Amino acid sequence: MESAKIYFTKEVSKEAIGRIYKALKHPLKGNVGIKISTGEPGGNNYLHPELIEDIVSELNGTIVECCTAYGGQREDPKLHWKAIENHGFTRFKVDLMDEDGEIDLPVKNGFHLDRDIVGKNIDNYDSFLILSHFKGHAMAGLGGALKNVAIGIASTHGKAYIHSAGKTTSSKECWEVTTLQDDFLESMADACYAVINHVKKENLLYINVLYRLSVDCDCDSHPAEPKMKDIGIMGSTDPVALDKACYDMIMNSTDEGKHDLVERMTSRHGIRTIEAAHELNLGSLDYVIESID
Fold first, then answer.
1. pTM for the full model?
2. Of 143, 157, 217, 246, which sits 20 to 30 A from 268 (CA to CA)?
3. CATH number at residue 243
């Protein structure tokens, strides 16, 4: 694959998100879904409404989410809506895509999954902006664009199926079965394959915000405080290259506070999801970064 173009700014602001979007010169068309994490109650590291309001307005977009599978407040749709409201997102149009049902998306020649299970309302959208907070994750090692597509767009049953590498769709059983770490990470790549092939590559755009660089995900109700300074915002049409560029920027940083995040990413072999997605031809591991500062 050719090297992917990554656009970067050191500024973290709603205006900077807009500049990254314009730099990509890849306008999203039709009914646009904006996939973010609305955050587990108790946490505060998610992308706040004030940070994303300009891009949501510009795209006339709908915030899209699906329910979780780990027993937090957002597994129950009613409590999930309460969290969405409490975190200020009801100022926008919001769609809990799996609230009224789910559909299967096929995975062809994947690592472990034969299908991905997603909220049925995915088909209500012509294009998607995958707007992600890049950070660590207790299980996946890291969370960026690929995780936001894989876990983020999967329904509760789909999340259980990914976490168990295809062994169960039960959100209770998936935490009881034994799943090898790389099998889980590769299953996330399988889920990305299903979503990207269903929506079509040309209808997806990816922006990662590298701020509040905690070792913990926005799904954690009590995330660790970041020790590393904010880095900026990156955007691309290639989710593999984008996550790889974010990973590399953290690994190569001279910030003395990076130790915990580097340990979290490497101890969970977080790079494997990126490598597996590349092996499924979802993007390139090679990239060039163009600063728009």
1. 0.97
2. 157
3. 3.40.50
